[in-house]
Design a protein that fits this description.
This protein is α+β, with helices and mostly antiparallel strands and about 190 residues long. It has four helices and eight strands.
């Protein structure tokens, strides 16, 4: 039945377009453009890493441990300033924050390097963007070995850049791209 209805609508549209000529075509094109514009306006703008960090910290004050863009939603982990609390948050494309999980029994000693770092996740993202303009997609505290910030950027050149930022100075220490041109990631790309 649906197929039959579609055929009737298609046939009726064809008759209207033939009878109306160019004016009907222009009218149909204008209506289609209006629908496309309305659909685009209904899709909310995506927030940046900086905006997601600000929204998360407003909801749960502390120190950002990680920001990760998953589609249009930011997954944000925040550790309380005293290192004892931890919250897993989601920041939507509109900037709305949803608490996914919260723990108040963390080991403060384990979080001391993060809570004592001179450079924040937000500052690390800015330093990485200065080296490779584009969109930050991940910022993570990396304390395996030498503590630093790992930042991933989708560059304006289309490449994905992996950047390490020193936790004390905010300087980019290494960076490399996953451009797909080579099989190696020697950090000198």
């Amino acid at each position: 039945m649906k197929r039959t209805r579609t055929l009737y609508v298609s046939a009726a549209t064809a008759v209207v377009l033939m009878a109306g000529g160019p004016a009907a075509v222009a009218s149909a094109a204008t209506a289609d453009t209006a629908r496309t514009a309305a659909a685009a306006a209904a899709v909310p703008a995506q927030v940046s890493a900086e905006e997601a960090a600000a929204a998360a910290l407003k909801h749960y004050p502390g120190v950002i441990e990680s920001l990760d863009l998953d589609g249009a939603v930011w997954q944000v982990d925040v550790v309380s300033k005293d290192g004892r609390g931890h919250a897993e948050l989601e920041v939507s494309a509109t900037g709305a924050v949803t608490e996914q999980n919260k723990d108040t029994n963390e080991n403060a000693a384990e979080n001391k390097p993060l809570t004592g770092a001179k450079v924040t996740a937000e500052q690390a993202a800015k330093a990485a963007l200065a080296a490779h303009p584009g969109q930050v997609t991940t910022v993570e505290w990396d304390d395996d070995g030498t503590a630093s910030w790992h930042v991933e950027i989708t560059g304006k050149d289309g490449k994905t850049w992996d950047v390490q930022v020193d936790h004390a100075t905010g300087k980019v220490t290494t960076s490399g791209s996953d451009s797909g041109d080579s099989d190696s990631d020697d950090g000198n790309n």
